[in-house]
């Protein structure tokens, strides 16, 4: 029984040590920040994103520019980051921000109804 | 009156913009990234490997059966003053939540009630109960108020309760019905984030609970019909701290999960309650998966049909909420029947013994699923503590606090998820092993009867992992 206990302790110690070391290495690698803004052009047609784009992926700490155009007046809202722009036909509107928080954030067209246009995924480094 | 209304309107306008996002949205909106494939594979591999390792190390026929014993390491007494302060705090909190919900700002994130109830209490206090200890019996506000009223009335009456006979067969079935209702309010009901609705639900439940106390006696009702006492009691079995009352509150410290070890089978109603909780936890996550969205699309095709048919969508969710726990119960009973056939033991006995071993898997999944929500949405309590009614007060100077959505990195959540799920599974298999070795004394054939249970455990864990690896989608997006 004591032998088993020691074994179990060793296994759990090993798990903890491995986890912590992966975390440290990962964080060290993540210290480099991007310089060029990550620009994505998005066009809304008939209340949907043209080209069937369902997610936009960026890296954490990137400078992101989401550039919007639309065939009719649309209020676009990026949740979480809480950025809202109103896009008029023939015009582009840019959501510019630094992606400091990771996560999967819905971007919705707000009007009489809220419909999800696509998701912004900010991936960790 | 008009002046007050003007002041109120001014206060609304003056409020900071951080609530703008939340106003339009459900309280329980999660921003979690799906668990990446690599993490998913490592976790599922570890689950399978660990299952076989435990199987090989421990499950080879029980030559020396594990004896049930008391695992308590440390004992102590909780000072009466601490208990009294906590009770006063929770009773005041209950009054505040009802008052704020009824008379405060009607916007979800400008009123303390929705956040306090759904995020801080149900999720946060749930974590505390599972990972530290279940203090609900000490602080239960309904129990405190009732006890206090009885003490005050002592000169005139010996108690407020008729002490009607509580039928044994009824068990915790009232709690099963109440939990289903509660889960429905949490996961399905429209307007569950509206402060007034939350307050009214609390009021109705308060009256219902006190009626239960009056009819059957407080202790009987707390054991059977106060659904949160029953639910937290179940989560609390996993926790290292536990509390008993022999006139004063005593605390005991024991290793994690030893409270799940039992040699006396649960009552059938308690087995049903446990399966209901296990099933509901899974349904909660499943409702955000692309698979569920695809099923909804089949029934309600078209881009805006979910919004256009809210009742049809709610009916689907309700059906899922009932079908999920029923499916799990069906599978569980099949496994139990198989075990009974192999071992020759009575299946009613077995079904009451093995259900607790699934609890660690559900707790682990619940942690992985809700941790970031708690860390992000839970922050709303900071500004709301200063302005619980949403009138523009600033009691503690925290009203202008802004929510930091970057407070936990996705990578930390992924690590947490993998470690929690694998650990939860290992603990579950271990609890199952303990139970088996105390039930099936010596025969190896009996021990082999555990394989069906292991298959179900691995499947349940894998389902949890699979849900974590799914991107969260709302069903109206195609």
Task: Give a structural overview.
The complex is a heterodimer of chains A (125) and B (478). Chain A is of the alpha+beta class. Chain A has one helix at residues 2-29, and strands at 38-45, 48-49, 55-59, 63-70, 74-78, 83-87, 93-98, 103-110, 114-123. Chain A has 2 domains: 1-31; 38-123, Sandwich (Immunoglobulin-like). The relative contact order of chain A is 0.19. Chain B has 2 domains: 22-69 and 264-387 and 398-478, no CATH class; 72-254, no CATH class.
Tags for this model:
heterodimer; A: 125 residues; five-stranded mixed β-sheet; four-stranded mixed β-sheet; 1 helix; 46% strand; globular; B: 478 residues; mainly alpha; three-stranded antiparallel β-sheet; 3 strands; disordered N terminus
What is the helix tally of chain A?
1
Structural class determined from secondary elements of chain A = alpha+beta
Residue runs with pLDDT of under 50 for 5 or more positions of chain B: 1-25
Measured between the Cα atoms of the first and last residue of chain B, the distance is 49 Å
Q: Which strand order do you get reading across the main beta sheet of chain A?
A: 3-9-8-5-6
Choose one word for the global shape of chain A.
Answer: globular
Structural topology:
The complex is a heterodimer of chains A (125) and B (478).
Chain A: H1 2-29, E1 38-45, E2 48-49, E3 55-59, E4 63-70, E5 74-78, E6 83-87, E7 93-98, E8 103-110, E9 114-123
Parallel strand pairs in A: 1-4, 3-9
Antiparallel strand pairs in A: 1-2, 4-7, 5-6, 5-8, 8-9
Chain B: H1 2-14, H2 19-23, H3 37-58, E1 74-77, H4 80-103, H5 112-131, H6 136-139, H7 141-152, H8 173-187, H9 195-216, H10 218-224, H11 227-236, E2 241-245, E3 249-253, H12 268-286, H13 290-299, H14 305-308, H15 310-343, H16 347-354, H17 359-377, H18 381-386, H19 410-439, H20 444-448, H21 451-468
Antiparallel strand pairs in B: 1-3, 2-3
């Amino acid at each position: 029984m004591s032998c088993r206990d020691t074994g179990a302790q060793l296994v759990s110690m090993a798990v903890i040590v491995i986890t912590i070391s992966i975390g440290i290495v990962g964080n060290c690698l993540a210290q480099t920040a991007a310089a060029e803004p990550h620009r994505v052009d998005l066009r809304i047609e008939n209340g949907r994103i043209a080209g069937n784009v369902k997610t936009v992926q960026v890296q954490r700490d990137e400078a992101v520019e989401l550039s919007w155009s639309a065939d009719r007046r649309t209020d676009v809202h990026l949740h979480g980051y809480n950025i809202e722009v109103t896009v008029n036909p023939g015009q582009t509107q840019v959501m510019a921000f630094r992606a400091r928080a990771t996560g999967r954030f819905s971007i919705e067209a707000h009007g009489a109804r809220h419909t999800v246009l696509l998701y912004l995924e900010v991936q960790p480094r | 009156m008009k002046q007050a209304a003007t002041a109120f309107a001014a206060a609304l306008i003056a409020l900071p913009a951080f609530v703008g996002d939340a106003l339009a949205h459900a309280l329980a909106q999660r921003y979690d990234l799906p668990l990446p494939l690599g993490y998913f594979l490592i976790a599922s591999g570890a689950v399978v490997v660990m299952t076989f390792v435990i199987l090989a190390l421990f499950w080879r026929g029980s030559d020396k059966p594990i004896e049930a014993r008391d695992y308590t390491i440390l004992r102590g007494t909780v000072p009466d003053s601490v208990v009294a302060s906590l009770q006063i705090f929770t009773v005041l909190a209950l009054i505040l939540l009802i008052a704020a919900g009824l008379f405060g700002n009607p916007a979800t994130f400008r009123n303390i009630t929705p956040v306090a109830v759904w995020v801080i209490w149900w999720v946060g206090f749930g974590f505390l109960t599972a990972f530290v200890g279940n203090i609900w019996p000490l602080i239960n506000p309904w129990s405190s108020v009732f006890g206090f009223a009885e003490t005050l009335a002592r000169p005139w009456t010996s108690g407020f309760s008729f002490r009607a006979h509580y039928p044994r067969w009824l068990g915790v079935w009232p709690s099963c019905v109440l939990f289903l209702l509660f889960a429905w309010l949490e996961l399905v009901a429209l307007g569950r984030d509206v402060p007034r609705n939350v307050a009214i639900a609390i009021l109705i439940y308060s009256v219902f609970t006190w009626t239960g106390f009056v009819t059957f006696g407080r202790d009987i009702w707390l054991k059977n019909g106060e659904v949160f006492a029953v639910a937290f009691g179940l989560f609390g079995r996993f926790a290292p701290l536990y509390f008993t009352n022999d006139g004063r509150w005593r605390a005991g410290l024991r290793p994690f999960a030893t409270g799940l070890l039992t040699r006396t089978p649960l009552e059938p109603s308690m087995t049903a309650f446990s399966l209901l909780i296990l099933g509901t936890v899974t349904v909660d996550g499943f409702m955000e998966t692309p698979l569920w969205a695809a099923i909804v699309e089949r029934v309600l095709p078209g881009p805006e049909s979910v919004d256009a048919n809210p009742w049809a969508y709610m009916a689907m969710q309700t059906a899922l909420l009932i079908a999920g726990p029923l499916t799990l119960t069906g599978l569980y009973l099949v496994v139990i029947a198989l075990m009974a056939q192999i071992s020759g033991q009575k299946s009613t006995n077995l079904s009451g013994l093995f259900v607790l071993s699934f609890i660690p898997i559900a707790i682990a999944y619940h942690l992985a699923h809700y941790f970031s929500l708690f860390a992000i949405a839970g922050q709303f309590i900071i500004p709301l503590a200063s302005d619980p009614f949403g009138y523009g007060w600033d009691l503690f100077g925290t009203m202008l606090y802004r929510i930091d959505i970057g407070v936990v990195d996705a990578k930390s959540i992924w690590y947490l998820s993998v470690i929690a799920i694998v650990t939860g599974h290992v603990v579950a298999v271990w609890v199952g092993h303990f139970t088996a070795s105390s039930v099936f004394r010596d025969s190896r054939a009996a021990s082999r009867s555990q394989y069906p249970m292991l298959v179900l455990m691995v499947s349940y864990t894998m389902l949890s992992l699979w849900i974590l690896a799914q991107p969260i989608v709302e069903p109206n997006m195609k």
